[in-house]
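Page 47, continued from p. 46.
Same chain as before, 197 aa.
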Amino acid sequence: MEFGNLDIYLFDQFAKGRFIDRPRVLDAGCGSGRNLVYFLRTGHEVWGVDPNSAAIAGARALAAALRPDLPPENFATDPIEECSFKEQSFDVVLLNAVLHFATDPAHFEEMLRGAWRFLAPGGLFFCRLASSIGIEPHIHPLGDGQFRLGDGSKRFLVDLPELLEWTERLGGRLLDPIKTTNVQNLRAMTTWVLERS
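Result:
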């Protein structure tokens, strides 16, 4: 399949043409590269970072199969906050299903700023993360921004005011309204798409 196992909310950004003039892509928390297939097939310059070495091995194998011209060093085994890629050198930064693994607000900020620092002015920041939006009666606070969700998992959650505040603090501009999918009150996943000023 041309798009691979692409996150459907990322597909929405493809449909809007937002990657046409943004050739350099960093997937921060890339796993084995499931969201990179289309970028690799369309000639984008692709990088990825993930703390899981087995996942990075998978991403390198995927890139080698689809784009053998890309050096394996484009894929690094690091947490995003410790990655040494050049700052402000990417036109797109993907941060998909990463931030809700933060251990506390300081760790959340460290990961968020760690990813944002790689985004060039005018670049697109695509983030999907768990939130409390719309499921407030169904979650139980555990402290330090952690909540027990209806599906039994524990996640770091943000709310709408926090995302709007972070948009301003980062110097970003919303490209889309903040959208949240409520999964039968068990969890909520929010899509947050910014452009860097």
